[in-house]
Each structure stands twice: as C-alpha cells, then as structure tokens.
Q: What sequence folds into this?
C-alpha cells in the first residue's frame, strides 16, 4: 500500500482500554477494534515458525457457530485443512507469503462438513496476520461500473458527473441518501453532490473541518477501498482469541469489523441505521469518498456488491480527473484569449490613459463580480467594487501587512480586514496582485458573498477560518443536530486563476511601461512569439540533445570498466568529463529558460551545511585539474544543527560562483570559500557564503551587468572560459525565488568577492541525519543475477549501451524497440522490472505503462522505471502518475541507473 496521507511524526493512538471521548477521538485506535458485525464471520491466522510463514489459528469471531455449528475454541482446534480445505489453505499461504494485496477479491467456498451451503470469502494480509472474512453468498449484484460508464456519455461538466454518480449509487444500492465528499489540502471537506429522498435534509454545499473525519478514520479510508456498517445499533460479536496475544490484530482493511465508538455515535445522532463508504484516491492521495446512508433499515450487502462499489469508485475517479482536466484546460484557453484581446487593445491605445481605460474589462479576465486597478494617482474599476474609501484603506492594509507578497488571496476578507464587513456582498473574497514595491499599487478582483446553510453533526464550539492552517473547528460539545447559516465566504480562488492573474499582471506592467516611453508598440506580439519559441527550444533541447549525450557518456563509462592501457583510460576519462561539461552547459540553458518562465520550484530537505563541500568538490574536480586553481573552504562558527533548504539549489549557486571564480584566477592561486551561519534562533538564521578569487576583479560599472543572461565581462571575452554567460544570471534567478541577495565587492587579493546571503527557513520538524549522497561514478558493476528485465528503447546506440551494461550484471533481459512490443512481451513473459523510454514509435512508454497498469494480470504489478530525455519537474510528476515507480533523466550516469534498478527491485 503506497503512502497516501502525511502522518505527523508525533502522532500516537490511544492506549488500549482508554475511554474514547470528544476530546481524544482524533487519536482513537480504530484499526484495532476487536468486534465483528452481525452477518459477517472473521477468521484470523497468525504467522509462526522460524521463518514466520507457517499459519495457525489466532482468533475467530464469536458468531462462527452460526456457519460452523461449533464453538470458537472447537473451530480453532481443528486442523486448518479440515476448516478451509486444501485448495483454500494453499491460496491463504500464497497470499500470506507474498504479502500481496487482494482488495475485496471474491472466492466461493463451502465447509467440508456442509457442502450445500456456500459463502463468499475475502482475505488479505495485515502485518503478522492473515484475515479471512466470510459473507453470505450473493448470487447477483448491481452492475455499478456499467451504469457509471453509460451515464458518463455526453457529460461535459464535473458537477453533472458528481450528481449523476450519486443518483446511480442511490438507485442501484437502494439507499436513502448518497453523498459525495471531497477533501481539500488540509483535509477540510465539502459535500459536492448528493442524491436523497425528498424529506431528508440536504448536505450539498456543506463544509466541515478535518476534525469531523479524524486522522485515524482517514488512515483506514486510505487503506480500505470500501467500508460497511450494516447496523450501527448492533454492538457486534467479539473477536475470540485462541490465546492472549501481544500483537493486536490490525483490521483496518477488514470490511466486517464493527464501527468505532465515535462512528456509532455519529450515525446514531444523524438517525442513520446502516451506511457504506467508498474511498476515492487520486495520485495516491485520499481525494474524498462516497457516503451511502440507510435511515430506517439495516444495510445488508454482499461481497459482490462491495467489489462493484470498489470498481465504481476507481472508474469514477479516473472520469472525474479527466473531466476536470478538460474543463480547466478549456477555461484556461478562454481566459488566455481574453488576456490577449485586452493587451492588444491596450497596445492600440496612443498613451497610458487610453490603455488604462481598456482595463475596465478586467472583471472578464478572472471570473469575479468586480475588479479594480488602484494606485495613488489612478483608480479604474470594473463591475461591482467597494467604494473608493474602502479600496484605499484595503490597498494600504495590503501594502503594510502583505507588501512582500506578489499575490494575496482570501475567501473571507472581513475576517482579516474588518472594514470589508460593510461590503461583504461585493467583496467577501479578494485576489490582489502587487504592481510595485515603492508605492501602494494593486490589481484586485472581488467576489461577493455566498451564503450556505450547513448541517453540522453537533454544535460548533468555535468556528475558525478554513484557510488558516493553524486553526481548526474545536471538538463538539455534543453530537446533537446543529443547522447553521454560514456567511462571509466567497467562492474559492482556483490555482490556475491565480497563475493566470500573475501572468496578466506581468504583461500589463510591460505594456504600460512601453507605452509610457512611446516606443516598441509591437512588443507584446514579439514577446509572446519569443516565449513560445523559448518553450519549443526547451522541449527540443531537452529531448534531442540529451539522448546522444547519454549514448556518449554511457559508452565511455562502460569503456572505463574494460580498458587497462593508461593512455586510453585517460582519453576515456576526457570523454566522460567533456560529456559532463556539455551536460552542465545544457542544464544551464534549461535552468535559465525555466527561471524566465517561472517554472522552478524549491524542494527543501534537512541537511548539514558542511556536507555540501564534498558535492561541490566532486562537481568541480575536472575544472580544478584543468585550471590548477584549488579550493579552500573555511567554516566560520558552528554548523552542528541541520538546516531546511533546497540543498541542490545551494550547491548550484556555489558551483556557478566558484567555477566563475576559478576561470578568472591565475594558475597556482586558490579560490577562498568562507561559509557562516548567522542568527541565534530558527526564525532569523542566515547562510552567508563568501567566494573570493585572485583574478582581475570586476569593475564597478560592470557589476550590474554580469548578472544578465549571456553577459561576460570585457576581460572574459579575451580569456578561454568555458561557458555561455549564464552562470551568474542563474544565480540571480535562484536567489530571487529563495529570497536571498548577492553583493559584489573586491577581495583582499584584488579579485572579485561574491557574497551570498540566504535566509534559512525554520525546521518544520526534527529531522534525522541527512541521507548520504549517491555515488556518481561506476566503480564496480553489481550483480543482478536471477532477475529478468524488459527494456523498451528505440535508439540503436542506447540499445547497445543497455545490452552491454545488463550483460555485465548477469541478469536476463529482453530489448524491444517500441511501446506496443513492450506491452506484448510483458503479457507473454514474466519480468521483475520494466525499463521504458518515453518517446518511442507506435506507442510511447508512458502510454504503454498506463495500458499495463489497468489490466487485471500479474504483469500489471511489475515495477517500472522511466528513462527519458524529458527532464522538467512536471514531466517527472506525469511519469509517476502514469504508473512508473522511478525516473531517470538522460544523460544517465550508469551508477545512478544501477543504484535505482537495485533499489526498485528490492522494494517489497
């Protein structure tokens, strides 16, 4: 089971026997409930023996006499072969030994002493136990998936899909109410849709805090695809243990376990008799769930129906994601077209005043009730906006409290800016873009209030702002029904809306500046074309250059393993170092393009600053030998505590500044690198890095220019420096997103001194020792004997590289040239790992793995690695979403490839 929830490190369940109350129900050990629902029979086997793989009875539900005609103790005393039969016993051992997941897989079984009565059986491994659940045999079940797919034809909007899915479930399962819940990033929830009997209270539109579905319940939801409460008023049957056990039985994924204390009280309070839950997971995250309620009767369902609901939820999630992506894509295209029209009209204006008049159409750019462009000199409004005094006061408040942010948004403005309470019908929510640092100038959109009638499961003690991550709705004083009219909220601001607003703001500022100078009227069209050309270059460079570099580098590294002649070894090492340098220059180009497009994001982690020295020295080893300019690191002060930063970006800044210093230092001199951590507390710490060389220095008039892309100082133009003038420009871009600064001065030896100051964010939690860096040089090829790999690669050179490398590992392997062949071979043979290139003829690698993952065959569960020339973060996320377990971007260092193969093969 892949991890789907972020569980705090200090989270602890209640100790066994602790009374569950409203104040501690968020830590209720719901997975260890030892009672079983009526009409379901549970048998627990425990692993024993030296290897822990032999099975013996551990516990059975007290109602086993209903189907076995004997007491629990007598049942557990009988040999397993008599109870289960040899065929089922063999299957149970296979499931336990392989630790495989069989989510609600249905098996039909009868007991040896009564062959006439048959039962449906589900089984799964839970830690050191194997859990078997018997259900009364169900001969027919509703075809939920067929109904879903038939209903989805022609649906264009997600809300329609949500509503129709609830209708299908209510009608097919004969429940009184079907509700679709969705979680936000903080696990507050919203009832998106429902289907109900007319006399029942509506739930659609309800927002509820994360405490309504506590973390223990969400953990169970993420593990168990379907939950069932047949009759909450029935206490259920006890789980009878053969002998006292020190290891509790985890029934997280057992359908038959009785509901928890809080769950029973909740359903009792709501008047619900029986209920069923279908979990919805998207990209390995708990997206939401279907909740199905029966008010006046128990909910009796068999295993066939539960399996149908599980498959219904899986298919619904795929349809919902695809539909949302399509709608968002169309919406973004429409808004982009509106942006272009607005900017074209602004460019057609003869002066700034004329251009500002066009801004009156701003409310059409982002779905809103009104928009305003405000500065000390101007006020341009569109649609419904607050009066000017409120707008001026809001502008000053934003500048004072959030002036450091380029964008600020809130869907309950009056909670943080009280004057907005008087204009809540016009400005319940705001999306504001800062247009300048020195003066209070903002571009703002407003959304009016949306009132909601919310039905809480109990009276709220305190209502908190859902956007504040440090506040939550407090535990309920009781579980009595509470209906509340919620006011003051606007519709939420979507992520793509915020991104589009930022892009529009940048282009508007550019247009207004150009019009202010009465020149370059055609700048917008050229800028758009340049941006599109840059994006095309980024894609072409990423794929077309990385693939041949990979062939050169991989073959050279393989040659190093075979050659013994010192001269040939030196030549091969030159090829490797030159390929690494070419890769670095390529990465510089790509990083600059991504920085310009705003596509670079930080990935902080816990590490110790002194560990960076080894990475820097390894990266610059070739340049150190070539320039004969060594590095001298100095560590000023204490570095005992780890820091929380993006280590790779810090190393990139150091590499760019140090390599620049080495290139401009005379041979025999050294580059001095002084590192220091300032600040005594977590909130004020700064990492200061001073890089000083002994070169000719940088003239004061050149210091502002050296940070520009493709710029090289006058002295550098006459020196043999390897680079394209992007190093310092990339440093500037990285410092901007890391909120750092760079100062250029003269060093004590007359050269240049680069001083970088980076704020160190507070550590989010206590981290352990940082992981050690992986080896990048292939010292010895490890053995993969006993494994069989399937490689899909269309490039002939890379095919030969793979063949040579894998032949040396001792594994069996097959190489095919496209994705269609890969799918065919995967279904025909048994493999331990797939290694697929992405861009191939006939069928791409990502499409091939998606086809395999949806099949109900053993080949669908084989781990897979993506080896590709696409290297952006969004590409990596896409490949993992498609079903790959790992990712390597070309050009690949063979040590990294072999390490990832071993790591993936050894995963349980």
A:
């Amino acid at each position: 089971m892949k991890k789907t929830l972020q569980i705090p490190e200090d989270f602890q369940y209640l100790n066994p026997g602790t009374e569950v109350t409203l104040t501690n129900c968020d830590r209720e050990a719901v997975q260890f409930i030892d009672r079983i629902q009526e009409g379901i029979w549970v048998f627990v086997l425990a692993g024993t023996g030296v290897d822990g793989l032999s099975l013996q009875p551990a516990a059975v539900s007290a109602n086993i006499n209903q189907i076995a005609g004997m007491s629990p103790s007598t049942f557990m005393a009988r040999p397993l072969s008599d109870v289960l039969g040899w065929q089922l016993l063999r299957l149970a051992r296979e499931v336990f030994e392989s630790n495989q997941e069989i989510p609600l897989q249905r098996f039909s079984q009868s007991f040896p002493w009564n062959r006439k009565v048959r039962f449906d059986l589900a089984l799964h491994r839970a830690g050191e136990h194997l859990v078997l659940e018997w259900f009364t045999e169900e001969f027919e079940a509703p075809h939920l998936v067929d109904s879903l797919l038939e209903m989805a034809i022609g649906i264009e909007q997600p809300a329609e899909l949500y509503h129709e899915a609830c209708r299908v479930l209510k009608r097919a399962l004969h429940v009184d109410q079907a509700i679709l819940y969705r979680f936000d990033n903080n696990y507050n929830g919203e009832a998106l849709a429902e289907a109900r009997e007319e006399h029942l209270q509506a739930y659609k539109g309800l927002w509820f805090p994360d405490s309504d579905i506590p973390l223990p319940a969400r953990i169970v939801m993420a593990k168990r695809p379907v939950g069932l409460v047949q009759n909450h008023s029935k206490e259920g049957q006890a789980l009878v243990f053969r002998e006292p056990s020190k290891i509790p039985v985890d029934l997280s994924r057992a359908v038959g376990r009785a509901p928890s204390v809080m769950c029973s009280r909740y359903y009792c309070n709501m008047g619900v008799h029986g209920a069923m839950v279908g979990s919805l997971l998207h990209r390995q995250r708990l997206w939401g769930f279907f909740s199905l309620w029966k008010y006046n009767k128990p909910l009796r369902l068999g295993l066939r129906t539960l399996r149908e609901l599980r498959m219904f939820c899986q298919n619904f999630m795929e349809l919902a994601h695809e539909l949302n992506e399509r709608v968002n894509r169309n919406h973004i295209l429409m808004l982009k077209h509106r942006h272009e029209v607005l900017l074209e009209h602004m460019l057609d204006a003869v002066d700034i005043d004329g251009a500002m008049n066009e801004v009156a159409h701003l409310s059409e750019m982002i779905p809103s009730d009104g928009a305003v462009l405000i500065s000390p000199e101007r006020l341009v409004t569109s649609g419904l906006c607050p009066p000017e005094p409120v707008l001026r006061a809001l502008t000053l408040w934003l500048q004072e409290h959030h002036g450091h942010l380029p964008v600020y948004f809130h869907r309950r403005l009056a909670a943080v800016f009280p004057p907005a309470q008087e204009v809540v019908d016009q400005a319940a929510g705001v999306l504001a873009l800062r247009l300048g640092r020195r003066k209070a100038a903002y571009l703002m959109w407003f959304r009016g209030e949306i009132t909601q009638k919310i039905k809480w499961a109990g009276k709220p003690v305190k209502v908190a702002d859902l956007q504040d991550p440090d506040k939550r709705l407090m535990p309920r004083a009781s579980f009595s029904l509470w209906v509340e009219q919620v006011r003051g909220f606007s519709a939420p601001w979507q992520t793509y809306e915020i991104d589009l607003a930022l892009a529009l703001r940048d282009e508007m500022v550019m247009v207004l500046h150009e019009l202010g100078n009465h020149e370059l009227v055609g700048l917008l069209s050229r800028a758009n074309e340049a941006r599109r050309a840059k994006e095309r270059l980024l894609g072409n460079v990423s794929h077309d250059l990385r693939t041949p570099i990979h062939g050169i580098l991989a073959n050279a590294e393989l040659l190093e393993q075979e050659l013994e002649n010192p001269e040939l070894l030196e030549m091969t090492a030159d090829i490797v170092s030159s390929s690494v340098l070419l890769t670095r220059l390529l990465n510089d180009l790509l990083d600059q393009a991504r920085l310009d497009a705003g596509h670079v994001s930080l990935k902080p982690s816990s590490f110790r600053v002194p560990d960076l020295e080894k990475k820097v020295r390894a990266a610059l080893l070739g340049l150190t030998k070539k320039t004969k300019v060594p590095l001298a690191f100095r560590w000023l002060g204490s570095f005992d505590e780890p820091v929380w930063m993006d280590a790779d970006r810090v190393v990139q800044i150091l590499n760019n500044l140090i390599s620049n210093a080495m290139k401009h230092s005379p041979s025999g001199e050294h580059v001095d690198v002084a590192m220091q951590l300032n600040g005594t507390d977590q909130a004020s710490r700064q990492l200061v890095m001073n890089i000083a060389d002994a070169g000719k220095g940088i003239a004061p008039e050149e210091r502002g220019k050296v940070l520009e892309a493709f710029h090289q100082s006058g002295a550098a133009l006459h020196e043999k420096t390897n680079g394209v003038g992007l190093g310092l420009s990339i440093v500037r871009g990285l410092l901007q997103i890391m909120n750092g600064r760079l100062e250029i001065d003269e060093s004590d030896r007359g050269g240049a001194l680069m001083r970088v100051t980076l704020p160190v964010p507070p550590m989010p939690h206590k981290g352990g020792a940082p992981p050690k860096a992986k080896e990048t040089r292939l010292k010895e090829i490890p053995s993969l004997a006993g494994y069989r790999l399937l490689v899909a690669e269309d490039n002939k050179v890379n095919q030969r590289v793979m063949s040579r490398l894998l032949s040396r590992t001792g594994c069996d392997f097959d190489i095919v040239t496209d994705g269609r062949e890969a799918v065919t071979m995967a279904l025909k043979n048994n493999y331990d790992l797939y290694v697929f290139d992405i861009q191939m003829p006939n069928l791409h690698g990502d499409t091939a793995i998606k086809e395999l993952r949806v099949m109900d065959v053993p080949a669908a569960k084989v781990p897979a690695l993506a080896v590709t020339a696409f290297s952006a973060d969004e590409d990596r996320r896409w490949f993992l979403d498609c079903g790959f377990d790992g990712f390597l971007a070309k050009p690949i260092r063979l040590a990294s490839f072999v390490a990832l193969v071993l790591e993936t093969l050894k995963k349980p």
Notes: Confidence is low (pLDDT under 50) at residues 457-480, 518-524, 713-724, 767-776. The radius of gyration is 32 Å.
